[in-house]
Amino acid sequence: MQSTDKNVSQSITQVIAASSLGTLIEWYDFYIFGSLAVIIGQQLFPSDAGASALINTLAIFAAGFIVRPFGALVFGRLGDLIGRKYTFLLTLVLMGGSTFLIGLIPSYSSIGYAAPILVLILRLVQGLALGGEYGGAATYVAEHAPVGKRGFFTSWIQTTATLGLFLSLGVIVLTKNMLGAEAFADWGWRIPFLVSILLVGVSIYIRMKMHESPVFTKLKAEGKVSTNPLKESFQKKANFKMVLLALFGATMGQGVIWYTGQFYAQSFLENTCKLDFNESRYILLWAILFATPFFVVFGSWSDKVGRKWIMLMGMLLGVICYRPIYQYFIDATNVKEFQKTELKSASAPVVERTLVKDTKDSLVTTTTLKTLNNGMTFKEAKIVTIPDAPATFPEEQTVIKDVTLSGPTYIIIIALVFFQVLLVTMVYGPIAAFLVELFPTKIRYTSMSLPYHIGNGVFGGLVPFIATLVASFSGSTPLSGLWYPIGIAALSFVIGAVYIDNKGDENVAD
């Protein structure tokens, strides 16, 4: 008996490792784009585009999320017709190839608006591929896992999205530090895209050695495979009701918590709080490192107490805590106000004079590195536009950038980002097991993939874009963008609390 248990354990371990590696690489491919949005925007759009370049780049990033539900339909149907293994092998090839090609796209200065159009097309392919990847990996692992441990085993798949983000941030920071900021912004940003092809090759090799899910194999041998998974998933009233419940009562709220805690947090620290490029990424790296084990903790715990309330409490805590957390971010990094009483020293100013593109006006930038008594540093750039016409008054603006934090503040902000990622582990750790258990085997891939990718790809994936856009409106505050994830999470909490059952396992083995 012990030998049998050992063999089962080894088999499941191999399944998790093979599924997780491929999924991790796909998430890595997906997230390097979001992590480099500011630099990519400078490459894809005119140099004088200003803030619109970032918003347009985030829109291209968001497009990849919007098409994920279509990928879920296409690849979910294939997965229920021909099997889990070959379907999510195909999604890996599409994702890896698209990422590699993004690294080769010429900049706006070389091919004009063809650059953002080509990147948009590749982002759409990425989104379609990712739409088919997650459902396959989660279903594959769940159908190998023993009853009573499904939350524990599928939670390992859940870590891959965060670990993919962790890996992307690590590669980006390492590349930037090796090349220097100037070379990285010019051409080095392409390296994280290009090296992904090596990781994809390794993952394809491993996945080729995998066997089909035993549950699906049995279903196929018995001739019970669905002939029309889309029709059975969405035209049967009882199943379609579960699809809607999964979307509005779980994945919608889970999606906004995920992208607020791990994507919008970094974007807010870098773009609103003006933290240094490396500083914002190190904060997220530390937070992810400490929080990632909790995916498995909450996934395993959900096997004992149920999935429902763990996920819903993660949503509720986000609703309650987001605004105080982000207000602290603003207050703790307000160096413009701090320097009135806390300025310790200032470096000699560095003056740079350039011509404004397509005009005879001059742009004079005077940059000073300042240090506060609490140890924080920042660069203050005074930018003066000197018009060619003598009668016109010069225009002046002051820009704060490259803020680095003092020890205590740095620790507190890491802790607050860690808390947000902890909420991510609460809502995301049990979600795969929850979704798998809602639907019967023959239409599971299709049925679970659609609500997952609408909830994550549309509601969640749009968080950085919508929140940044709302905060840019006239009369808004830096916190205005948070009303979007707070509102969605609150609505999902109410629906989930009223309608979701805390049971599981009903449909898994059929």
**Could you give the order of the helices and strands?**
HHHHHHHHHHHHHHHHHEEEEEHHHHH
Per DSSP, what share of the residues sits in E-state strands of 2 or more residues? 5-15%
Cα distance spanning the termini = 25 Å
What is the global morphology? Answer: globular
Q: How many domains would you count in the coordinates?
A: 2
> What top-tier CATH class of the largest domain fits best?
Mainly Alpha
Short structural summary:
The chain is of the alpha+beta class. It is built from 22 helices and five strands.
Please describe the topology of this protein.
Elements: H1 2-35, H2 37-44, H3 51-66, H4 68-82, H5 84-102, H6 108-111, H7 114-142, H8 150-179, H9 181-186, H10 191-208, H11 214-221, H12 229-234, H13 237-272, H14 277-291, H15 293-305, H16 308-332, H17 335-342, E1 343-346, E2 350-355, E3 362-372, E4 377-386, E5 395-404, H18 407-428, H19 431-436, H20 444-460, H21 463-472, H22 483-499
Antiparallel strand pairs: 1-3, 2-3, 3-4, 4-5
Helix pairs in contact: 1-5, 1-7, 1-8, 1-10, 2-3, 3-7, 3-20, 3-21, 4-5, 4-7, 4-20, 5-7, 5-10, 7-8, 7-20, 8-14, 8-15, 13-14, 13-16, 13-18, 13-20, 13-21, 13-22, 14-18, 15-18, 16-18, 16-22
Main location: membrane
GO cellular component, one term: plasma membrane
Domain Major facilitator superfamily (MFS) profile: 15-504
